[in-house]
């Protein structure tokens, strides 16, 4: 079992559908494999992609999968999702 899963959104930042799909897929995979941590990398940029990721994570069916969400300490370009 991996310690964490990571998804980098830099290559798909233009497609809201692909972003949504990538975030949902990594969360469902982590929950299914009992992985305790997911790293989502939206990058620093203007913050629009990070805001989009945080909005996706607030959806009720996804909130059931994790315990908490935080921006990585010392790295504004990474969102950490704790499943356990």
Show the helix and strand layout:
Blueprint: E1 4-8, H1 16-33, E2 37-41, H2 48-57, H3 60-63, E3 68-71, E4 79-82
Parallel strand pairs: 1-2
Antiparallel strand pairs: 2-4, 3-4
What does this structure look like?
- The protein is an alpha+beta fold and 84 residues long.
- The chain has a single domain (4-82), classed as Ribosomal Protein S8, Chain: A, domain 1 (2-Layer Sandwich), CATH 3.30.1370.110.
- 38% of the residues lie in helices and 21% in strands.
- It is built from three helices and four strands, in the order E-H-E-H-H-E-E.
- It has helices at residues 16-33, 48-57, 60-63, and strands spanning 4-8, 37-41, 68-71, 79-82.
- Strands 1-2-4-3 form a four-stranded mixed beta sheet, covered by helices on one side.
- Strand 3 and strand 4 (79-82) form a beta hairpin.
- The longest helix has 18 residues, at 16-33.
- The protein is globular.
- The mean pLDDT is 93.
């Amino acid at each position: 079992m991996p310690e964490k899963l990571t998804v980098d959104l830099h290559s798909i930042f233009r497609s809201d559908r692909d972003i949504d799909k990538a975030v949902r897929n990594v969360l469902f995979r982590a929950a299914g494999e009992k992985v305790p941590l997911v790293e989502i990398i939206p990058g620093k940029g203007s913050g629009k992609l990070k805001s989009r990721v945080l909005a996706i994570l607030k959806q009720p069916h996804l909130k059931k999968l994790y315990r908490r969400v935080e921006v990585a300490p010392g790295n504004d370009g990474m969102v950490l999702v704790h499943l356990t």
